[in-house]
Every structure is written in C-alpha cells, then in structure tokens.
Amino acid sequence: MAPGQVVGGEAVAEGGGWRAQLQPDSRHRIVNKIMETLKKHLPFAVDAEEEGLQELRKIAVRFEEKTYAAATSQNDYLRKISLKMLTMEMKSQNPMANSLQSSAASNSENPQEPAS
C-alpha cells in the first residue's frame, strides 16, 4: 500500500494509517473523558478512595485500548466510544424505564397465577 492510497474510505498515511495520525495526547483525553463518564454513572466509584479511582482508570484504559485495536478507522474509533458513553448516559437518565423493562421481563418469565 502506498501512502495516500485510499483503503476502505480512509487514506493511508506513512507509518500505519489512521492510528499513526492519532496523537497520544488525544487518546489520553479520550480515556479521561471515559473516566468522567464512568464516575458519573458508577456510584461506587464516586465514594471510592484512590484505589477505586485507579481501578476506574484501568477500566477506562482497557475499554479505550480494545476499541482502538478493533476500530477500522478514526471515525469508527470515535463512533464506538461515543456510542458506549451515550448508552451509559441514556441508562442513567432513564432508570425508571430500565426498572420497568427488567420488571416486565421477569414477570413474563414468571407469570403470577390469577386470583380466584
């Protein structure tokens, strides 16, 4: 593959494609953003001391690394991370709907006998 050649809608740069163009500080900022989202939506992490924050950072880094490795382009990488964080936001903003869904699911699995 020659530099500048278009592969799968992405131009290939010298040195390894889109990953070579993504600056390490960009990845650090993304990990920090993931951490902020996790802190908001994982109650145990808010109450946690330094040990809990270190564990949270490990989770954020691991998620970012897996997404980075699996992504086919920078747009794909950013889309996957954004989608995951948006999903977390939606779940936390709508806890009643989530509990109703889980309640409905358990009721359909274990229907109560009708009263006579």
TrEMBL record:
Residues 92-116 are annotated as: Disordered. GO terms for cellular component: nucleus. Pfam families: KIX_2. It is found in: Nucleus. It comes from the Eukaryota. InterPro entries: KIX_dom_sf (IPR036529), MED15_KIX (IPR036546), MED15a/b/c-like (IPR044661). Transmembrane segments: none annotated. GO terms for molecular function: chromatin DNA binding; transcription coactivator activity. Keywords: Nucleus. Residues 16-98 form the Mediator complex subunit 15 KIX domain. Residues 97-110 have a biased composition (Low complexity). The keyword Nucleus applies. This is Mediator complex subunit 15 KIX domain-containing protein. The lineage of its organism: Eukaryota, Viridiplantae, Streptophyta, Embryophyta, Tracheophyta.
